[in-house]
Amino acid sequence: MLWLLFGYNVVTTTFLVTFGRLSDIFGRVRLYNLGFAVFTLGSILLSLTPGRGDQGALELILFRIVQGIGASFLFANSAAIITDAFPSNERGKALGGILANSNWRYVFLVSVPFGVFGTIWSYSKLKELCVRQKNQKIDMFGNTTFGVGLTLVLIGVTTNLQKSANEVGKPWVISSIAIGALLLIRFSFYRKACRATDV
Fold first, then answer.
1. Rounded CA separation 75/71 (Å)
2. Domain that residue 73 falls in
3. pLDDT digits (tens, 9 = 90+) for 61-120
4. Can you give the pTM of this predicted structure?
5. Burial class (CB in 10 A: 0-12, 13-18, 19+), 64
6. Which of 69, 98, 127 is the C-terminal boundary of a domain?
7. Domain membership flag for residue 7
8. Residue 103 lies in a domain
9. Measured between alpha carbons, how far is 167 from 171 in angstroms, rounded to an integer?
């Protein structure tokens, strides 16, 4: 079950930037359409999984990865296609939706009814089934290391993706990615040491 979720998310995240670049080269609409086809193929394969037991689980994971590849094409191109189709002075309306013509704040109100219903339903119907672990502490060092490292990497990568930005390739951008990567590596060794201590 973990790999059904994790595999999809990892593939989608990993290929997002690469597929975005491929779309710049070969055409955004072409690869967007390909993404729909691949995503649909993955969905069909998931519904037709022939195997059972471990074989079936492996097939589900592989087909879920196929679905993730299609999703990467879609995510990489959906906003870009809208951006290409509208002039700069209308992109806010296009990306924000039709409600933005009246008031951009209405865009965020669309999800409110679902949120209210979900909140009432969950508080009234869901019950805590897991055993609460008492005397447990939050791993502040591990959480901080992971959070800061990931944030620095994302800041550096995002800045480099903004081709028009004047900061691209500057030392602080490279340093941000390098320090973030080192912190993430440090986090992985720290967690291994923690698991070894727990055992």
1. 6
2. 2-98
3. 899 989 989 998 888 888 777 777 777 666 666 666 666 566 656 766 777 888 888 889
4. 0.53
5. buried
6. 98
7. yes
8. no
9. 9
